[in-house]
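dude i think i finally got it to work??
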Amino acid sequence: MKELFQHTAITDGVTVRVAVNFLPEQSRIEAGKWFWVYHIRIENHSDQPLQLLTRHWRITDGKGEVNVVDGDGVVGEQPVIAPGGSHDYVSGCPLATPQGSMEGHYVFQGADGREVKALIPFFPLAAPATAG
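look at this
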């Protein structure tokens, strides 16, 4: 099954694409826990290799509570993406509400030492009405 990327942001030659899916089998709605999985594809359209150094996420739940997550790399990696190349990873997000949103940015370092801050597009987290 080919995944469709629903959200895209382009910043300084870096394209970030996101596909998000609600996972009812990982959720415990009776306990107030909803879970989504998201697939990110980062494409390097610049003329030099870029290394992903850090990530910054702003996760907002349905009550407006904001959780900021900063860290090194993504899922334990700090990949170097060649010009014309891409890097894919999958991660997940639990919430205490049946809807919310995520957005943020990555910081890359180019081979020339310059830092590039690439936006992660805003994307909604929404459980189907029947799931909550």
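The beta strands are 7-11, 14-22, 34-44, 50-61, 66-72, 80-81, 86-95, 99-110, 115-126.
im so relieved honestly
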